[in-house]
Structure formats: C-alpha cells, structure tokens
Amino acid sequence: MDYILIILIIVLSSACSLQVGSKTKTTKAPLKEVLPTNATQIANVTIAPALEKLAEVHIDQHKTIRISKGDLDDLLDVYMGRIAESAATIKDKENEINKLQTKDQTDDELLKKFENLTQVCNAQNSSFAATIKDKDEKIKELEQKVKIYETRMKRKQHVLTELRKQNTSSALLIDHLKRKVVYFEGKFREKKDDLLADWEAATTTCVPYGNYPGIHLIHLPGFLPFLVACEGQTAAGPGWMSIQRRLDGSVNFYRNWDAYSKGFGKLNGEFFIGLEKLHRLTISQPHELYISIRRFGGETSYAHYDDFLIGSAEEGYELKLLGHYQGNASDALRTHDKMKFSTFDRDNDAFTHMNCAEYHQGAWWYDFCSRSNLNGKYFKGEVDNPQSVYWEPWYSFRSLKSVQMLIRPKSQMELKDLPKAKRTPRDPR
Ligand SMILES: *[C@@H]1O[C@H](CO)[C@@H](O)[C@H](O)[C@H]1NC(C)=O
Ligand SMILES: *[C@@H]1O[C@H](CO)[C@@H](O)[C@H](O)[C@H]1NC(C)=O
Ligand SMILES: *[C@@H]1O[C@H](CO)[C@@H](O)[C@H](O)[C@H]1NC(C)=O
Ligand SMILES: *[C@@H]1O[C@H](CO)[C@@H](O)[C@H](O)[C@H]1NC(C)=O
Ligand SMILES: *[C@@H]1O[C@H](CO)[C@@H](O)[C@H](O)[C@H]1NC(C)=O
Ligand SMILES: CC(=O)N[C@H]1CO[C@H](CO)[C@@H](O)[C@@H]1O
C-alpha cells in the first residue's frame, strides 16, 4: 500500500511541478476556457486534467482498487509516451513559431530589399528619364538635320531638273550645230568644187567672168593661184578686175611695205590687191586702168589710162606705164608716172627731207608728194585734209566717199559709152 502511495505522490508532484513551472495565470480559470499559448501551457492543458481525473479515481477507490506494479508500469509508460508526444508537439509548435519569426525577419529583409530596389529603380528611372530626355533632344536635332537635308535635297533636285533642261537645250543646240556643220561641209565641198573648176579653167583675167561678178580664182604662170574680185558689168563695160576699193573706212590702209606688197583687206569690202600681184598681172599682158571715184555729194567721175604697168619688187613697184588718159575726173596720176611706191617704212618719194607716206597717211607712188592719195585716211564726211582719200587736179584735198581701181587686159573690148578725151570743167569753187 505504501508503495502505491509513493508512486502516486511522485506522479502528483511531477504534475504539480509541471503546473508550478507555468508562470501564467495563477487564478483558477475553468480549464476548458484556457487556450494554449505556448508549449508549457499546452502541456498543462493536455496532461493536467487527465492526471487530476486519475488521481480522483484512485483517491476514491484507493481502498477498493488494487493496482499492481505491472499495471502502474504500463500506466507510466503510457503517460511517458504521451509526455513525449506532447514534447514533440511542443517542439513542432516551437519550430512553427520559429519559422513564423524567421518569416517575419525575411519579410523585413525583403521589405528592405524592396525599398532598396525601389530606390535603385528610382535612381535608374531618373537616369533613364535623363537619358530619354537626351535622346529626345538628339531625335529633335536629327529631325532638324533631316529637315535641312530634305531642303538641300529638294534644292539639288531642282538644280538637277534645271541642268536636265539645260542639257536638253544643249543637246538641241548641238544637234542644230551638227546640222550646220553638215550644211557648211556641203557648201564648202561645193565651193571647193567651184574653185577646182576655176583652177581647171586657169584664167589669168576677169574677162571670162563678165557675166559672173564675184570672187574668182586667177592662175598666172609661175605664180600660186589667188582670188580676185571680178566686177561683171560696169559703167566701163564688162571684164574688169578690182585691184583696190574704198567704201566705209572699215579697213586700215595706213600699212607698211610688206602689207602693200602682199595685199590686205576683204575682197567683198575694202582691200588692196597687193603690189606683187599687180606686177605679175600687168607684166603678163598689157592692161588698162579704170579709176572710179564718188564724192560725198553723190557725184561720180572716172579716169581711164590705156596702158598700165607696175614694176617688180626690185624696181620698187614703180609705176612704169600709164598710157593715154581719158575721163572726167582729171588726170591726177600723171605726176606719179615713173615713181616708185612708198610706204611709211619705205620712203621712195622725191623729197629728201620729207616722208610723203607719213605726211599723207597713205601709200602711193609719191613724188613731191601727191595729187592723188587713194590709199589715204578714210573720213566719214567731206573734209579738206591732205591725209584724206583724195583725187585732186587743183591741189585741194577734199575727201572722197568711195573709190575703185579696176584693171583689164588692154583692147579686149571697146570702152563703151565713155566720153571722148576732153578736159573736165574746172571746179566752180
Ligand atoms: C509559456 O508560458 C509560461 C507560463 O505561462 C511562461 O513562463 C513562458 O515564458 C511561456 N513561453 C513562451 C515561449 O512564451
Ligand atoms: C542596396 O543594394 C546595393 C547593391 O545591391 C547595395 O550596395 C546597397 O548597400 C544596398 N542598400 C541598402 C540600403 O540596402
Ligand atoms: C520616373 O521618372 C519620371 C520623370 O522623372 C516620373 O514622372 C515618373 O513618375 C517616375 N516613375 C517612377 C516609377 O518613379
Ligand atoms: C544629257 O543629254 C544626253 C544626250 O541627250 C544624255 O545622254 C545624258 O544622259 C543627259 N544627261 C543628264 C544628266 O540628263
Ligand atoms: C563722168 O562720166 C560718167 C560716165 O559717163 C558719168 O556717169 C558721170 O556723171 C560723169 N561725171 C561728171 C562729173 O561729169
Ligand atoms: C497555468 C495553468 O493553467 N495552470 C494550471 C495547471 O493545472 C492545475 C491542475 O489542474 C491547475 O491548478 C493550474 O492552475
């Protein structure tokens, strides 16, 4: 009996000690209302009522119920198992609590991280915002550039269009010029053919061209062919060749020896045929000379010499022969008969201390200078000037409007309609 009691006391005291260990509410609250908040409390809730009940039973029946040692051992085992279970449960709950606590901690950390991330994000956002602003500005810049390029492009296209237009007109012009070239080539070939035909005709005078006035080729033996102006029908009849012409002052006649020797000017305008040709022509056969002059008042007159001959270069292109004079302009060449030709750079005149070519601004067969100066300076109106183009029988130097000197082989034709040799009336002035 003692034995049993001892065990019971142990059990009870252990239960008490369990109960004493719990510092929670010391007041006697109804058991069923107490909710476990931690492991100790749980232990109290689960174990205490069972032990209480057990103790009551044993106290009530301790006299009647005999409990064997073996039974008590079993009972103890059962309780010990239950205690162990409870401890495990407690451990579980603690773990759960720990977990919850760690979860709290991790939540905190997460929150911090989130905040940090937010900060980082904000920082990045502002940097991105700055970058975006940058990019926006760049885009604007680029857009402006694009606009500029577009404008330039448009301008270039405009220029290109203009160039294309010009190109087209240039192409048209080129076509036109090509056609002209072809046309002139044709003309040139025709002219060449004409010239060749002329060459073959091998004329030495203008006589065959009495009905074909214009420029023709003359071919003298031992001398290169050259072009001359043939006059066709004139007041003096047909077949005359022009050797000198003054019309408008378009050609300068104040030239040197070389120029007068070779000739100059334009065959269809003002010109001088050249002394060398004149020599060759007049030496090849006897020639006659017909000089026609016109005053600014419109009055015309002429001088005709029936035997005209010019010497060679060695002879200073001397006026060797004149023959008989006939006309109504007066004989203003006679005093120059047998005189050499003079230019400002070749003084062959009769004055020793004077250069007549310089004085009269011309080139002629000057003697004690001159009664005629058909290569003088051209004046556009009538002046009285020793430098002018004049033909004066009375030593007046009235400028002439136009002059022409013609030659023709002697006695080829009769001089028709020419008045018989007679003195022209004096100038009434
Ligand atoms: C559990 O309860 C007991 C008594 O009420 C108390 O002493 C102990 O501190 C509690 N333990 C926890 C972890 O709250
Ligand atoms: C935020 O994170 C960065 C890099 O991850 C770290 O260097 C910094 O110390 C953190 N700041 C805070 C307040 O945790
Ligand atoms: C990012 O920055 C822009 C401009 O600074 C601001 O308007 C926007 O609210 C920001 N966004 C966040 C999520 O902070
Ligand atoms: C100019 O015109 C020529 C001939 O018509 C043509 O071949 C060329 O391509 C044109 N050039 C341009 C730039 O239009
Ligand atoms: C000179 O004779 C020509 C031809 O007969 C004639 O045309 C001209 O009018 C005459 N001039 C003078 C001034 O008599
Ligand atoms: C804290 C608590 O509830 N303790 C109780 C434990 O169990 C005994 C016996 O039932 C009670 O007397 C205590 O108050």
TrEMBL record:
GO CC field: extracellular space
SUPFAM superfamilies, sorted: Fibrinogen C-terminal domain-like
Pfam families reported in the protein's UniProt record: Fibrinogen_C
Coiled coil location: 83-166
Keyword match Disulfide bond: yes
Domain Fibrinogen C-terminal, residue spans: 197-411
SMART domains noted in UniProt: FBG (SM00186)
InterPro entries per record: Fibrinogen-like_C, Fibrinogen_a/b/g_C_1, Fibrinogen_a/b/g_C_dom, Fibrinogen_C-term_domain, Fibrinogen_CS
Residues making up the signal peptide according to the UniProt record: 1-17
Protein name from the UniProt record: Fibrinogen C-terminal domain-containing protein
Organism of this sequence: Drosophila suzukii (Spotted-wing drosophila fruit fly)
